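in:
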């Protein structure tokens, strides 16, 4: 499917070095690629409701990864998926008496508009689960032939992955088996289902059910894909056996990214699937994680409809470090609006303190595991000095505007 339209990103003078990013598997910040090219796969939306600020924060996080890589002269190949068939989509469509295809198309279109408004650099490949079904089914058949998967003998045609086929299972999330059991039940798994070899085995293929859409699976019979194999297949097909960054919110640490990695590594015989598993913190409202199932959502489109500048939303979401779970409040938005107005005044000043000095400090902050709060503080200090009339570099205001545009995605 089509991604959204991008904006021109200014090229900055000089060059940054590739950043350090925190890898959930190693539990430490480590340098990303030393080469001249990088690959990134980010888990995108399940389009049954509008884009909320949690989705936006995660997309902004990986937009920063892309921006710092580009600033380091690295050519980035970025893939993002759309889970345009899965249980939550069908449940919502049934609840509302709507066609699930129309629902998915509408919410995906709105997501694209929101991404464009937030100035998120689009992925080169924006890929739906449905269009990937032939490739996914082929992978499931391969795993069956290889003895890494099995069909449940209850007549449903459901196929499961055997985690016993992945001796390293658990290396990505670093969780105990008990923790995995709890999260599996909470996040779309079915540890209680009878007949599985291991309660943690994830679904690869769901056999056709009455009233549910189904696709030809060849020897698998008709059905639809499981969630984790969807992302493994899309990433492998477009980015190869080893990727630099596998990204998403920290709600995907387990089971989603653990199982995607297990599938991919078994299929290719290469490990680790991702050099960095990068997880963004959860955005919450009123003390709870923002989620469609809880209904405590602030939609990007709603804020846009209210006339809020998307750049203020972006600044609001960048106020906290990307890995921190944090709350969205009216004050966060107000602070974003005030900061945006101050930065805009300073960018229009005749002179300010050293532009190259500012650029170097912003680069250094982002280099260190995307430390956006420090980058914001650096620009704030430069802004205060400029508005106080300190500094005599007449090229600094233009360079400041280019810096925050290119590296933070904030257009002044
Ligand atoms: N389609 C799957 C991924 S393959 C999915 O998780 N969809 S989603 O619509 O639930 O979330 C889309 C992306 O936003 C995922 O990367 C998810 O981790 C992230 N996300 C979801 N809720 C939040 C939140 N409250 N805060 C931050 N990120 C979130
Ligand atoms: Zn995914």
């Amino acid at each position: 499917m089509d991604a959204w339209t991008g904006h021109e990103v200014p090229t900055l003078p000089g060059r940054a070095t590739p950043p350090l990013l925190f890898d959930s598997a190693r539990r430490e910040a480590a340098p990303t690629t030393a080469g001249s090219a990088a690959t990134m796969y980010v888990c995108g939306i399940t389009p049954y409701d509008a884009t909320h600020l949690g989705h936006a924060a995660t997309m902004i996080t990986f937009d920063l990864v892309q921006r710092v890589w580009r600033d380091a002269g690295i050519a980035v190949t970025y893939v993002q998926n759309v889970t345009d068939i899965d249980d939550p989509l069908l449940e919502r469509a049934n609840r509302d008496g709507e066609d699930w295809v129309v629902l998915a198309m509408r919410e995906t279109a709105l997501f694209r508009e929101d991404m464009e408004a937030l100035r998120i650099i689009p992925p080169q490949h924006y890929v739906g689960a449905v269009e990937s079904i032939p490739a996914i089914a082929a992978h499931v058949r391969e795993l069956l032939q290889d003895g890494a998967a099995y069909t449940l003998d209850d007549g449903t045609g459901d196929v499961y992955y055997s985690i016993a086929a992945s001796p390293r299972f658990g290396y990505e999330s670093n969780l105990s088996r008990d923790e995995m059991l709890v999260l599996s039940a909470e996040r779309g798994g079915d540890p209680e289902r009878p007949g599985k070899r291991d309660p943690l085995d994830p679904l690869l293929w769901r056999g056709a059910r009455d009233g549910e859409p189904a696709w030809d699976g060849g020897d698998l019979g008709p059905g639809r894909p499981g969630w984790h194999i969807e992302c493994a297949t899309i990433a492998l097909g477009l980015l190869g056996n080893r990727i630099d960054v596998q990204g998403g919110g920290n709600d995907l640490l387990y089971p989603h990214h653990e199982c995607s990695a297990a599938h991919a590594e078994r299929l290719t015989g290469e490990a680790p699937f991702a050099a960095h598993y990068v997880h963004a913190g959860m955005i919450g409202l009123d003390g709870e994680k923002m989620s469609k199932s809880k209904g405590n959502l602030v939609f990007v489109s709603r804020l846009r409809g209210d006339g809020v500048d998307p750049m203020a939303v972006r600044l609001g979401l960048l106020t906290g470090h990307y890995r921190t779970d944090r709350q969205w409040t009216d004050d966060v938005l107000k602070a974003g609006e005030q900061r945006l107005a101050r930065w805009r005044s300073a960018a229009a000043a005749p002179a300010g303190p050293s532009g190259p000095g500012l650029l170097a400090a912003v680069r250094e902050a982002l280099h260190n595991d995307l430390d956006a709060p420090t980058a914001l503080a650096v620009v704030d200090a430069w802004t205060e000095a400029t508005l106080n009339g300190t500094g005599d570099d007449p090229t600094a205001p233009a360079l400041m505007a280019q810096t925050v545009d290119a590296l933070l995605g904030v257009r002044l």
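note: The CA atoms of residues 222 and 291 lie 31 Å apart.
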